Amino acid sequence: MGNIFQCCRGLLSFFKHPGDPVQQGAEQSPLLSSEESDLDSLDDSMINPSTGIANPALEPEHFLFPDIILSSNPAGEVTLVEPMVCLLVSEEDEAQGDEGDAREGRDRCFSEVETQTEVETQISAEVQTQTDSEPEIQTENDKDITTSTKVKSEMEKNIKLHEESAAGFVWPEQHQVLIHPSGNGSERTEHFGAERKSNNTHEDFQVKHELSDEDPGVFHVKNEIIHTDELVDEPIFNKTHMKDPENIKREKEDQDKSGLQPLSEEEPLFKGVASGTSEDELSNKRKTLPSDGEVADLHEDKFTVQIQPPGTESFDLQVSGQMSISELHQVLMDHELTCHRSCFSLQLGGAILDSATELGSIQGIQEGALIRVVEDSYSVRDVRVHLRHVRNLLRSLDLAGRSLSYLSLFTRAHPGSDNMEKDSVSRSPPFYILPGCKERRLIPLQPIRDDWKPLQCLRVLNISSWNPPPGNRKLHGDLMYISILTMEERELSITCCTRGFYRNQSTAFNFNPKPAAPKILCHSLVELLSQLSPSFRKNFAALQKRRVYQHPYECIRAPVQVCTWVAPAGGHSLDCVTAEETAGQIRGWNEELQRSRELPRASLQERRRRDRRIFRINSDFVAAAAQGAVSMMEGNVMPLNPGEPHHLHIFVWNNLFFSQGFDMSDHYAPVGGDAAAHAAAMCDLRGVQAYASVDTEGLHTLGTAVVDYRGVRVTAQTVVPGLLEKNLEQIVYGSNDNGKTVFTHPRFLDLLDESSKSLRIQPHWVLDHSGSPVELRSAISTVGIFGSDGRPYILDLLRTFPPDLNFLLSAETQQEVPAACRSFGFPRRHRHGLASLRPQLVEAFVQHRYELFAKMASDDLGHQFATEKPEEPQRAAEQKRRNIIWKACENVGSVSDSCFDIRFNPDVCFPGVRFPSECLPDVQRQRRLLWDAAAFLLSNQIPVVLRDCLDHTAVPMDGATLTSAIHQRGVNVRYLGAMLKELDKMEERERLSHVQRISISEVITRSAKHIFRTYMKDVEPAAFSAAVSHFLNCLLSSSSAPVPDSCSDELPSRRRSRRRRTQSDRANVPTSSLWAKLTSDDLWIRIKMEAEDYYHYTFKSESIEEEIEKHNLQKISLLRETSIKTGIQLQLREYVFECRHKPAFSEDDVVNMFPVVKHLKPTSTDAAGLVQQAQLAAQQGFLRAGVDLLGRALTLFSSVCGMLHEDVSMCLRLLGRLRYTLGENDDALVLQEKAVLISERIQGTDHPQTIQDYTHLALYFFAGGRWSTSLQLLYRARYLTLLVIGEDHPQIALLDSMLGLVLHALMENELSLKFLQNALTLTSKYHGAKSLKHAHSHHVLTIVYESKGEFHLALQHEKEAYIIYKNQLGESSDSTKESSEYLQRLTDQGMILQRAIRHVASGKPSASVSPPRLPSHPVILQQLNLTCGITFIPPSEKELRAELNERRKVQTEDVEYQLLNQNGNKQQL
């Protein structure tokens, strides 16, 4: 880490001269200039270029970030595929790119962390499709086969359905997808041949695409990309859930529907396949997928064993050969029949099974093998583990320490209702959800759930005061004593001995260890209490029963806890078991991490095992780092250098090294001092992730995490063996003194050669301290050392990426600055010199330069071939071609003169670096290249970001999603001011008002966060809550002069207590502190200065109230963003910001402050490759192949990361969309429901992705006939959107359109019109009054008005729709013709109605008037699909006939196969 060597130097000086006085300098906080999201933030979206590039330098293996598919448009925008590989750190520092991860870091002891990851690994086996007996297994194709009569009727039914509605792919609402809805066509692409193996549920893995463009079975997708935004985790069963028959049946159905597939031993990946890949190319690539035999071998790895607990009947449990005994041990601790046990061993055939052994490697293990659970003797540690396990069981339904999920509150309220649920739920929403309501309620964010009511089994479970046992009792086996108060108010004194638990005769004042009557000894404390306390037995059984009805994803402890920014006020209960817990066993973090990276990775199984090990260790490390940082900041850890100033203290805790984000020994003085030291932490974390992603064998990096807590940045790292004991001369590569001394080493040069290609780092020469040239293949600040374990380590990776010359400490000569940079007002002086370009920008710039290179070379070569004379010597012609390539390479800045190879020298602008004279021309070329990249960001990428928002490719809803959108294009958050200025120049800026509003909100909250860091520096610990509430009052309260709360818990002195204190005395208690002198005006002035200095954006308003009113900002949204960024947790209540006489916040409203953790995010690259293949297959129209690939990716992700993970959520979401496309609505619903649960648990209940998932789930519920449930989900999504961003947003237009249609289906027309009219207004604003979206909004209103019989209004809206269709699509388009016919029908109905009215008025008999058309489910579903951007192409008669013939053929083959099997069985009999 950047400070680690400075810490070592300070320690050595301190130990050598402990008596020297400490120089107490002025403490300058870098938080005055905290490096913002450009360096602090980390993005999961990495760039991945396409294959098919002639130049070797652009081959995929040379790219670190494989997410960009190269565009064929010269100098055009980059076509992004959603990120599959998390190649950067999980969290955006200032950006908070992933709120779920950013808000992690709850204290978790080691055993809890390890327990969770082991359980998740087991669940991966449960998620995979279970292997049953051969006759019971059918492939998906087999399930669709019926008799010829059924096929014919099914085809007729399909034809009718196709005429009524479309089952299409759920793409983002701005896209339109043209899809052939019939699933049989895709099935035909997966024809397996005559021989069918009924015991293989994954035959369709071997896919043959031999269909022509006219093949009716191909789904035609129109240049669309499946967005794989998020990812998730694996299913874990609780103890009661795993034995319940209904839940087992439900989980088996879920597994069958989820499409989970096992993986082959070897899985080659597609890297950067262009979207234009032909069917033949795709078919060739699919041949790399596992064969049926490989899949069968893996599938046979799953088997069922019998578990025999002591004293009860055995039960069956499905396991996997890759499961270790320790993982099986944890599964049994979660099983209903064995959950009360923790101290036991497993035996097979009388032999004890080693905990580290995998089941597949045990001799004698087979289907039906009997594994016995054998009770072991307790030790003191085992007793503590058992007590903690019992405590966790008793609190398994408590909210404390859990990330929340509320989906079941809306989806399981009426499980027994019919399909339409017409009277099950109130259809009228709360008033604060209705269009036009300005009130934003906070309490509904966390609604009350009936199943979360407390269920108490014991009053007190306490460690007895008689501990530790005396010596004579230890000789009798006593380990510990505990005191228990039951619900019957009965006090029990329990002895924990080596054989178990029994009640003794001790009281509070009398020690008597003899057993009490009745003399009962139980191996489990739960068993003992069940016999001693009837209330415990009853309540514990009820607790277990309640857990049965929870979804497994609600019960799993998330690997990374999400700390919500609001929490209900709750009491604090006595918990001495937790109080007795310590940090757990001291672990050798570095050794564990490096050994896991050294595991073999030749085969797929080896890589899966290695990835899983790395993920588990990293998860444990992050939890320990967060716990250590909190303990350090709270003063619970002794610093190694207590004589130094507090802000320079360093710590070693649990074999982790902790340092604070301040400059030690003026190491960062040349690049900005404390500001640079603060930014260096995140820069180094990004560099560690980059090198870890390259994964060079033999090159080692440190485990790293960055924790922001109470305004202080703390860096946690694993300790290099020997680093703190040896002298600093062990550096063998790089420089640690800003270039004064430089070293190199041949081994490091070899190891860094591969990573320099992927990271686009140019190998270069610099001068060392003696003036001799030294070769480097990284930044000069990158340090290489050999640890005492002999491993080569690289540290200080803060300058891995190229510097951003737009932000410099010193102004550059204007001749060197491109005109594009000068036009934006750059370069600008920055507060530190560590500003760097994002890796996405580097790859986009390289792509742009390659397109220029290809165009120049192809034009010149074409001219050369055209003018080449036949008599010209071949050598001369070849030399001309070489000259052309050389010229093209020189023009684009390639480091090679024979091929395209763009690389950057990270040291060309670093102060103190000297270059040999012969390298100076190359240094100048590198400077020009960096300036070109900086100009490319301003002139190309910022407009591309705005274009993405304009065409709704990106729809940001809050700061996190805005940051993700601009990072995906390689734009740093420090360019927000430049982006806002560019937005103001656009003609269509009104359509981007939501982007402007979010950007301004982001500038305000980020600037406030910078100030909050320095603000908290002067706060004494006793006044934290008062200081935080005062800061929030100054920021958001309308009170004229917010006065800080007096410290209510502070006891007055004895002298002051003798006299009566006046109100003014109480108000002036804390005013002596600097933080208490802050006022609203002062804070706004500082925010304006910070915004101008850092983001280069000028606020012209005189107060924040004026700025909020000017841009229509929401104070509740600003409060949410500020709390998430700073780690503040507030009480869940309604806050009144507009009150002029009373501040909005009090110190009691500050519930907690949680650490905001940024860390590495390892994942499975094999699974990421499968997701990319699935995307490409879906783009080609092979949807069934995409389902197969995603199922296998899901299996791999879940086995590596566990079920509660972003990658798993992404796979479930995509699988649900594909299933919905194939018409499998029930399957899509199950998958999407899991995705929503995971999003709530790992990203937060109010995260924008959770809102999107709710929206898609509502569509699937409506397609399944559960209209009221769909309505409630849409109400929930609208409430969350209003809370996050407000009503003026494109997402509200989508939600209101869907709400209007669902309410229309429920015959709530008046309420429907409110939402549809608001949707019409927003659609006109954000999509344009002439857009097809606006025409569709008019058409939907026409449908509702027609059903009400208001033909005049219906005609008015349909005329508007017809005009738009005619102008945009022409008169010959289907939409225009349908609208014209609809207009004619409405006109006729209106005339009939008018005549009838006149006849009635005149008393004449009139013809009967047809009643208004009632809404039908297919029609409404079709409109919902169109609202979500799905267009249906009905199949032709020829296509339907081909599908029918194919199904008949498949059915005939199956009948023949079944007859052959029956004849064979008869012959055997």
Characterization of the model:
There is one protein chain. The protein has 1469 residues and is of the alpha+beta class. The chain is built from 48 helices and 29 strands. The strands form nine sheets. The chain has a five-stranded mixed beta sheet. A five-stranded antiparallel beta sheet has the order 9-10-11-12-13. A five-stranded antiparallel beta sheet has the order 15-16-18-17-28, sandwiched between helices. Strand 10 and strand 11 form a beta hairpin. The protein is globular and about 100 Å long. Mean pLDDT is 77; it is low at 14-300, 414-424 and 1055-1070.
Low-confidence parts, pLDDT < 50 over ≥5 residues? 14-300, 414-424, 1055-1070
The strand count comes to 29
Oligomer: single chain
Please report the distance between the alpha carbons of the first and last residues.
74 Å
Number of helices: 48
Question: Quick one: overall form?
Answer: globular
Q: What is the gyration radius calculated from CA atoms?
A: 34 Å
Mean pLDDT: 77
Helix/strand class? alpha+beta
- What's the arrangement of strands in the largest beta sheet? 5-4-8-6-7
- Share of residues in helices: 40-55%
Strand content: 5-15%
Task: Please outline the major beta sheet.
Answer: 5 strands, mixed
